[in-house]
Amino acid sequence: MLAIRNGRRVRARLASVGAHVPDRVLSNHDLEQMVDTSDEWILTRTGIRERRMAAPEEAASDLGIVAARRALEAAGVAGSQVEAVICATSTGDYVFPPTAPLIALGVGATGALAYDVNIACSGWVYGLAQAAALVESGLVRNVLLVGAEVLTRYVDFTDRATCVLFGDGAGAALVVAEDDEGAAGFLGFELGADGSRAEELMVPVGGGRRPARPGTFAERESCIHMNGREVFKFATRVMVDSATRLLEGLELSIDEIDLVVAHQANSRIIDHAVARLGIPPEKAFTNLERYGNTSAASIPIAMAEARDLGVLRPGHLVLMVGFGAGLSWGSAVVRYEPS
Known about the structure:
The chain is of the alpha+beta class. It has helices at about 30, 40-45, 60-75, 100-105, 125-135, 160-165, 230-250, 265-275, 290, 300-310; strands spanning about 1-5, 10-20, 25, 50-55, 85-90, 115, 140-150, 170-180, 185-195, 200, 225, 260, 315-325, 330-335. The protein contains ten helices and 14 strands.
């Protein structure tokens, strides 16, 4: 699905970003003591050196609340002013209630519209599209979007193919209504999914098809299962195809993009996409080596860090590209226009 903003109407503006990661660092050397792997093996195949791991008492909402507060603080907006909260997560606190109302409560957004988006690593881009749509439809004047994940709760630490990849963290953004015709806002989105390949990346147990009832399944069945080879092939293709379709639909060249922030899943996937799209390496921001794959939180965590380092600056045109379970994908082009 390709959607490009046109016509004269209220624009949705990306006003701020924020992020938070747990204190505990789980390094490749730590994993060497837990599973048959090595720092060199992990680094060569993934580009990851370490990842963060939530404390036992921390859930997705706890991480998300901190990230959300930071995004609000950056924008100078009080939680009580927030009209809608969307949480992109596949590792929410409960099957239900959703995690977004808990985050809304945590930031003081009493009575705000609040719901979750669950499409794994594509969740951030999907959530941005919904946030922009809510604002530009006139339903609300602002949306607090949070990507929050505690993926290490769903990792089998005897499976070296998956346990080296995932980490915990949260990122957030405030999307606001902007009446100024000079604001660029969100230029367009390109989203899609292929349900015929759902089994390539999944947690088999825990949903309505196979409920998590004691004694009815092997413990590993409640962990992340991934066909690494097929997901890699899918990702290297779809990231390039999705970004290309969006840029062509917007009649933009890659030279007009100031910064590319891709889902931080694997350095080889990102490097492949950067090369295929003709993106100068200095325009592609990555922080994968420090945080691993944080799913729906990976793009906003990278955005917040890029801002803090001065790599993301006001007025920059940003291309975001993600892929994940579903199998799904999503790309967005937005002008970063902080408050």
